[in-house]
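Minutes, project check-in
Item: structure for the 248-residue chain
Input as provided by the requester:
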Amino acid sequence: MRRDVRILLATACFGAAIAWGGRIPAAIVDMEMFRVEDISVRGLRYLEEAQVVQLLALAPETSVWSDKAPWRERVASHPLVKDVRVSRRLPDGLLVVVTERTPIALGPTPTLEPMDADGRRLPLDPSEYRLDLPVIHTSRRPPRGARHFPRDVRRLAAEVEHLMASDTSFLQLVSSVAWSGQGAVAVRWAEPEVEFLLPVQASPARLREGLGALADAASRTREGMPDVIDLRFADQVVVRRISTGDVN
């Protein structure tokens, strides 16, 4: 049957389905022309299209009129999938739009494993995908088989997400993130080697104050680059050089 004729018939059946209140008669569901033949998948960066199609687990006789809920649940079960939408493309197609989880930091398991902003473990090889992400320093390890990192690690992952939203250029220089002994967030740059002590959920304005203090200190070539920019205290920026004990 010519495709344009099939589409015309499919449209007529769709109109009839609406007239029937969305209940598709079994005679239409079982029609060969509505068996799923074409699957289009969008939104992928890490998953392969073949993996998503396999997750759908469609039988050869599956109709596009079948219940979409099981299809969504199967795809959503993958740890890299955050959300999924499935829509019909009559007469014989499905469109699957996947929202993948975004790796935002590396956490110890004890090897370094990517996690998203929710602290969920992601089955990605950092070397394979060249994931240049901050390392979360912590002694806590997720229990064997757990899908999430411990709560304090998840809170640090949320801090990384906050830094990304506040100042992407600042985050790009971050090599590691940890809790400091004073309950603040210790954010370390690798180059230049400097540590920022931040309050939880530091504002973009506060980050700019820290960067301004760093630039001012760096301009004083005789004194050299500071070791710590302390932003924990409101309306105050403390610049420290550990080697000399200087505080500004």
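Outcome recorded: The radius of gyration is 26 Å.
No further action items on this chain.
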